[in-house]
């Protein structure tokens, strides 16, 4: 069996597209991580402690009628060395080095007829499941989960190993991240391209110097085994899981390793695990071009809301070209180079609600004000106003590169850059250059498995026809690979579908609550 594709062209070099960021952020993140009860021994039950400060730090308050408890569990750093095998329940008896995995449990005070826990991962890789569980606890009015779900399940979020609160990876300096995001997304001269290569090499060396052989331990398969430890620690006999974007790859890996430990899995924004890295990056280039075309068509239809109409594509293309020659300088002296403009565009295409903000940002940039462009790009990069970054992209790089067993060489990347620039004018070359990300990454690899989830119950695989980051054609491929996948389609825009519309919400809720699989071929309308 092939075991490929690291989900996206990631950090380092000139381009990065994050296969996550699926949910609204209600307030800026902070780096303050509250103290939690220390982890017990491997295999111990979660020791829950109240943590109302977590939603307060993230959102400014707790959701009505919700209680927040946090815990930390210990897992082996290397499950294989601890004796884990495919299909074995994750309860190793061996001692050894461990990682701490941070959990949050959100429980409604109105809970009744409890089914169990709903484990949540928002994607990335590198997204915080702790943060996501908090956001989702605020209910449908804020883009969160319906009361029907929160009143029957505990929401359990976890930060995967290496992410945020869970033994975080941090080896990329703020200066290098600024260089990465701000750099020309399509470096055409050899000198410009060589500078991108040099940045990739430097980051690889610095991360290798800090973590060495431990880097392979941040792989998706290791994290999927952690999920089974979480299932046991929260006291669930069977797993109920909601995974977005990269979280679908994590869920699919879990399904192959522990098919008989599954109650229900919702995989929304599906990743095709059998794509190699080149095919995966090209798929994203195609997906973002489609989403951008849909944005330009919206501009033409609604010029009152789109100040760069009628030629939105021309306006964005001009903004990128001018940014490379004479970038606009903001009030704080920061310059809106081509990289920052590109990430503002990418950030806005993840949801249809971002289109109006993108149009406004490009229009204001043409008038000499880059504020909106920086806000869009910084929200994507998790960059604070004073220039500090979370560890989102450190983790993204470590996980993706641990997963990837084969990357194209430098000559092939340069060739693809030229070819894809022609095929996908806005996003093709940046995604080709993004293939540099793991070329100089040190350490061994630990590719995830691909194949059927033999013995698992039906798994719901959800796809959006206008999804830029995980294009829709990957949805039936993931469902087919698992063998038990059942496809649910949303004919909408943006990245991921649940709980965007009443049709999608009804279908997913029925599956989570009653294990009712949607009718074959069900397609939900945009509204």
Question: Layout of helices and strands, plus pairs?
Answer:
Blueprint: E1 49-50, H1 53-59, E2 66-76, E3 98-108, E4 116-121, H2 129-136, H3 147-150, E5 153-158, H4 174-182, H5 190-211, H6 220-233, E6 239-244, H7 246-257, E7 262-268, H8 277-301, H9 312-325, E8 328-329, E9 335-336, H10 338-348, H11 355-366, H12 371-381, H13 392-403, H14 410-423, H15 428-433, E10 459-466, H16 474-482, E11 485-493, H17 502-514, E12 523-524
Parallel strand pairs: 4-5, 4-6, 6-7, 7-10, 10-11, 11-12
Antiparallel strand pairs: 1-2, 2-3, 3-5, 8-9
Helix pairs in contact: 6-7, 9-10, 9-11, 10-11, 10-12, 11-12
Question: Could you please describe the fold and organization of this structure?
Answer:
This protein is an alpha/beta fold and 527 residues long. It contains 17 helices and twelve strands. It has helices spanning 53-59, 129-136, 147-150, 174-182, 190-211, 220-233, 246-257, 277-301, 312-325, 338-348, 355-366, 371-381, 392-403, 410-423, 428-433, 474-482, 502-514, and strands at 49-50, 66-76, 98-108, 116-121, 153-158, 239-244, 262-268, 328-329, 335-336, 459-466, 485-493, 523-524. Helix 9 (312-325) runs antiparallel to helix 10 (338-348) and helix 10 (338-348) packs across helix 12. The chain is globular. The two termini are 40 Å apart. The model is unreliable at 1-34 and 89-95 (pLDDT under 50).
């Amino acid at each position: 069996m092939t075991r490929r594709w690291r989900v996206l062209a990631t950090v380092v070099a000139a381009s990065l597209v994050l296969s996550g960021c699926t949910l609204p952020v209600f307030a800026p993140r902070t780096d303050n991580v509250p103290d939690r009860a220390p982890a017990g021994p491997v295999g111990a039950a979660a020791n829950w402690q109240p943590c109302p400060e977590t939603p307060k730090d993230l959102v400014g308050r707790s959701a009505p009628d919700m209680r927040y408890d946090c815990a930390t569990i210990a897992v082996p750093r290397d499950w294989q060395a601890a004796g884990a095998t495919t299909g074995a329940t994750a309860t190793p008896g061996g001692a050894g080095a461990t990682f701490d995995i941070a959990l949050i449990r959100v429980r409604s005070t109105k809970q009744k007829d409890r089914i169990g826990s709903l484990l949540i991962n928002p994607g990335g890789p590198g997204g915080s499941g702790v943060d996501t569980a908090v956001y989702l606890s605020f209910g449908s009015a804020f883009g969160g989960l319906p009361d029907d779900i929160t009143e029957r399940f505990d929401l359990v979020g976890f930060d995967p190993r290496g992410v945020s609160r869970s033994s975080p990876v941090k080896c990329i300096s703020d200066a290098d991240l600024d260089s990465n995001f701000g750099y020309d997304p399509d470096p055409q001269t050899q000198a410009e391209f060589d500078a991108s290569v040099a940045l990739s090499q430097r980051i690889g060396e610095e991360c290798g110097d800090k973590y060495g052989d431990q880097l392979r331990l941040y792989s998706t398969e290791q994290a999927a085994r952690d999920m089974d430890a979480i299932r046991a620690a929260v006291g669930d006999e069977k797993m109920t899981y909601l995974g977005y974007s990269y979280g679908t790859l994590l869920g699919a890996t879990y399904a192959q390793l522990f098919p008989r430990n599954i109650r229900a899995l919702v995989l929304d924004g599906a990743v095709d695990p059998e794509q190699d890295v080149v095919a995966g990056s090209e798929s994203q280039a195609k997906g973002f071009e489609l989403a951008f075309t849909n944005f330009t068509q919206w501009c033409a239809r609604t010029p009152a809301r789109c100040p760069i109409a009628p030629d939105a594509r021309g306006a964005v293309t001009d903004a990128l070209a001018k940014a490379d020659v004479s970038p606009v300088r903001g009030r704080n002296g920061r310059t809106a180079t081509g990289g920052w403009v590109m990430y503002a565009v990418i950030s806005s295409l993840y949801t249809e609600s971002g289109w109006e903000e993108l149009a406004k940002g490009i229009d204001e940039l043409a008038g000499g004000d880059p504020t909106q462009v920086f806000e869009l790009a910084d929200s994507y990069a998790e960059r604070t106003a004073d220039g500090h970054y979370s560890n989102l992209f450190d983790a993204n790089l470590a996980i993706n590169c641990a997963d990837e067993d084969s990357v194209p060489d430098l000559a092939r990347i340069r060739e693809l850059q030229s070819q894809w620039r022609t095929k996908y004018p806005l996003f093709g070359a940046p995604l080709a250059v993004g293939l540099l990300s793991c070329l100089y990454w040190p350490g061994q690899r630990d590719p995830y498995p691909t194949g059927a989830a033999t013995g698992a119950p039906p798994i719901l695989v959800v796809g959006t026809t206008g999804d830029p980051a995980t294009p829709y054609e990957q949805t039936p491929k993931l469902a087919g690979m698992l063998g038990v996948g059942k496809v649910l389609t949303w004919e909408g825009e943006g990245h991921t579908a649940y709980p965007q519309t009443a049709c999608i919400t009804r279908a997913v809720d029925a599956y989570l609550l009653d294990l009712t699989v949607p009718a074959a071929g069900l397609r939900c309308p945009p509204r």
